[in-house]
Amino acid sequence: MKTAPVTIKDIARQLKISPSTVSRALKNNPEISLETRQHVAEVAARLDYRPNIVARGLKQRQSATIGVIIPEIVHYFFSQVISGIEEVAYNEGYTVMICQSNEKSDREANNVRTLLAHQVAGILVSVSKETAGFSHLEEVDKNGVPLVFFDRAAPGMAKDQVINDNRESACRVTRHLIQQGCSRIVHFAGPQNLSIGKERKEGYLHALSEAGIAFREEWCTVADTFDKAYQEVMRLHQVLNLPDAIFCNNDLTALGAMKALRQLGVAIPGEVAVAGFSNGIFSEISDPSLTTVDQHGYDMGVQATRLLLKRINSQKEGEPPVTMVVRGDLIIRDTSSRGSV
Amino acid sequence: MKTAPVTIKDIARQLKISPSTVSRALKNNPEISLETRQHVAEVAARLDYRPNIVARGLKQRQSATIGVIIPEIVHYFFSQVISGIEEVAYNEGYTVMICQSNEKSDREANNVRTLLAHQVAGILVSVSKETAGFSHLEEVDKNGVPLVFFDRAAPGMAKDQVINDNRESACRVTRHLIQQGCSRIVHFAGPQNLSIGKERKEGYLHALSEAGIAFREEWCTVADTFDKAYQEVMRLHQVLNLPDAIFCNNDLTALGAMKALRQLGVAIPGEVAVAGFSNGIFSEISDPSLTTVDQHGYDMGVQATRLLLKRINSQKEGEPPVTMVVRGDLIIRDTSSRGSV
DNA sequence: TTGTACGCGTTATCAC
DNA sequence: GTGATAACGCGTACAA
User: pTM of the full predicted structure?
Assistant: First the structure.
């Protein structure tokens, strides 16, 4: 059953030429006569020769492989990013090696070691929530392996990164709610130790002050899950009057809030408008459909990979790090369009 | 900046011993004196030695890498599977190389070549919708590389596979609807050229006949997207009376149906019960929450990988192929619980 | 235009 | 217990 793999030597033996000639011929080296090249190509095809990438990698001290470290694969946004990464990699002849950190710092460090041991040509990483120190990432640098952050960068590390304009996007959402006539806008924020949570809150605050709306402390709570949002709406209902808009840190949170509102018999968007963040699949199909921000995960993957490949292919070191910002798109749907009410 | 990678030779030089001794010491070979082993371990740690997996792979004609070919990464179910695969792989010291076929047969064939070129230790495949011929998969066999199918197997190829019990699960869903007092149950089916679509329909039919309910042709249409389901409900509403239950091929379809029902002012589950399939994230958070089948994607990934690793580690060839069935779990939620109405 | 010789880092085998 | 040597498959400087 098991056939010994065909190597360059086998082709050479068949044609009674040397392995090196075969090697060159296979790469269409113009130094080799067209005739020989054709012969080699023929035999290679007939024998179903497949170059051993591992051997090539050993020789060149680098494999055509891109390493990816991601907090969790099971996450719509991240799966979009991976898809974008894979697409570009595929088209450029690279393969993708995936590791998930499960949001653990030590596992992330382990992932780095593994990828370096595999001699990957470059690494794409979105740091885990837990990660505080970055020595394991600096390690990558020391080995001369290019590194590009996506979505979540390591604060303080001057490296290439592809990130979202969370602040501006949040600002746009809030502005939109204001334009719809809302003035008492509550924000269900994400954890404030994460840059994304912080930046989105900042954008919200900015839009308020811009519109001359005085912010009130009780308008902002950290609530970033379906359940927390549900409970928070219920609490707001009892403690103070309901606001006329809720801007949530993510879509799931928004859906939790909507569930509570519906149970309270509150009209959406008639009495309370709602907006989320991320453009998960459910934002489009929720009822009413949810206003949100499309983060373009796929594009982020594409951009990050292109940037990485550029680094891999450029010999020059010491080029200044690049920060690419992928602009989030405000998607206005039914939960916020007062016009139709 | 760029440091030359530390190799076994560097350690050997430092300790003035031979590379082979270092190699053995690093693997805790008992032939090597404890003293030497400790010295080696020390120096390795100090120099931050990292074994070059590529070189090892070349030597052993196999790399500790598992190849995965998947139709689309951006799919909740598949992302769960990948997560399960990665988890097991990580714990066993393997890494995961991901390729997506984008449901294209030729790309799938390409993926196979790439993975073989990378000398992967084994391959996990879920075949694309388009794939008809399987010569590229037989190629894997010829190279002596173990192959395990997950979710979608190649019909006719006697290989290891981990699949869902679609027929039985669909049957359970339908039975449940019948138990809730439904008798005019409509099925929005998936494409009938895919085994999953076919099997689910079969399960539905089986449950009906089992309960002595005569099936009527107009009860079953192929509608497997949000929009199609929406339109189909609207059509049913006009053409014939609405059924008292709708069993959909997947969750998204169910949500489309629900949207239409809600617009028609039909009570769910009071007048029409609804059930989906897949247990996507939105089934839990939809309002009312959706009865569905949990396909345990993560578990499928885990099982498939374990099976693959078993094959990789067993020398014996010619062991009969194994088919593992992951049982889907009926998750009863609000769209079908008549008891509460 | 082609062949020779060597090395990439690791490990299996044989020798001491 | 340890060392020397060869080999995995490929690429390339150098020689012819």
Answer: 0.91
